[in-house]
Amino acid sequence: MSQRMEDFPNETLLHVFSFLPLKSLINGRTISQEWRRLIPLADINPTRQALLDFYLTLIDSPIFLQTRPWVLANLEPFNRQQYIDDLIDQHPYVPEAFRVWILEWPAKAVIGCNWPGLPNVHAGRDIADNVHRIEGNNSLAPLPPTICALPFMNYTAAAHFIPALFIFHGQQSTVWLMLDERESLRDKVYTLVEGGNSLFDEKGDSDWDIIDDNWVEYQKRTWGRIELWAKWRADKNLPIMRLEDMPQNTSFGERPMFTKSFRRGELQAHTWRERDEPNVRLDLYFAENDVHLPDLGERIEY
């Protein structure tokens, strides 16, 4: 008679658990009370463990279910491995936490309306309560993904481009995942509160920029902000918006200046592959008194 996995010795189970992907670890906790007790004791990959801990925090939140309707109504499948392959085809390094999140995170549990399988439509103030819907654009949605070239250390002799993935475009802010491998930038997520597309140095582009050490920390901070908005609405006796009460999506008005690399509602910088083209390198400034004009390309009015 074949032996059930539940009957394996604890040492064997712990060894097996250490190799399981995130979804299997989540499902495994529902098998039995013993598995629920054992899974946290397994030697799980630290990134996967951090994502599991965050998932458990989410589903225990009293507002989690209220943030689901728009996500569930708009989710579309996408090829997760192809998404990562497309990034690696443009640049060899993808932060581990982001890679595991793309490959293994339960789509029905995405937060902040930020996921490749959700639409890239602008949520304005009339349809965004920053709990159920987040104000801004889901910049992970355009497929295939495009890595951007952000000017770094501009107005110094060391000015150069660094690779980054455009994550989210808020009302004023832009969010970027760094793909540069140097220790000072590696894995970090920058929220540029003035909506920039460059970094002056590792501290960002202004004194107000927010830097998360990795993708999991960014996700945790995003959820913390959603909880604060939920508390604010509760204090003001304002309900969380229901899906059926949301107006239609509205268009997003961006500055009407683009180069050939810019695509409306998608990119806010040149592509990484174009970084060596002469017109693109005009976005770099090599001296404090450098006042040359960048190549703005064709002006698009809409």
Automatic annotation (TrEMBL):
It comes from the Eukaryota. Pfam families: F-box-like. InterPro entries: F-box-like_dom_sf, F-box_dom. Residues 2-39 form the F-box domain. This is Predicted protein. It comes from Laccaria bicolor (strain S238N-H82 / ATCC MYA-4686) (Bicoloured deceiver).
